[in-house]
Amino acid sequence: MTKTSRTPRKSASATVNRKGTTLEMIRLCCPDASLATQIAETFGLAILDSDGIRDLHQRLIVETAEAMSEGVGERAMQIHLQRIVGSYVGSAHGAGQFYSRAVSEARDATAKSANDMRDEDLEGPAGFDSAAQRKREFAADMCLQSHVLRMAAEGAVAAYEHVVGERWKPFERAIENPGQTVDRKAAEMQMAAFG
Fold first, then answer.
1. Residue 195 resides in a domain
2. Residues 6+ apart with CB under 8 A from 150
3. The total number of structural domains that make up the chain
4. For 132, which of 16, 113, 114, 115 could close a Cys bridge (C-beta 3.0–4.6 Å)?
5. Does residue 40 fall inside a structural domain?
6. Would you say residue 88 lies in a domain?
């Protein structure tokens, strides 16, 4: 008779922290000012005022916090700003990931269009761009968009530090019993009712 091996069960009170998005993560996926300027010049797009965008968002949040300070306690203000800054950082991170995918698609389409044997990647009819050109232009637009959102997030993080007095870090939510589905939890509760 063959003995079956069982995997050890995790305790019912196991918790795992769900990691939040950090400012360092958006700096890795969103372009900096020099790359955004280079892309804007290459594609004939508007040159962005990166420092102005960051400073404006920092002032906006600081002034809002000052206006609310009479009616909101310190801890409540910290929680409120934690959520506000988290949304800025999350938005920038999502845009940075989207930008990275757009660049990959543009590179892929451009490499395919270099192959003379492919008919579907040839230039479009007179007056229309090729698919590869449209993807490159889209990636350039996404570069500027993700850079703007990065600057807004950096301004929000700086405002948090100014108002709260400590460095912002993402909220990490504890997840109880990771991987356990609602159906499994329901089945366990139903079986527990039998005693």
1. no
2. 26, 27, 30, 31, 32, 92, 95, 96
3. 1
4. 113
5. yes
6. yes
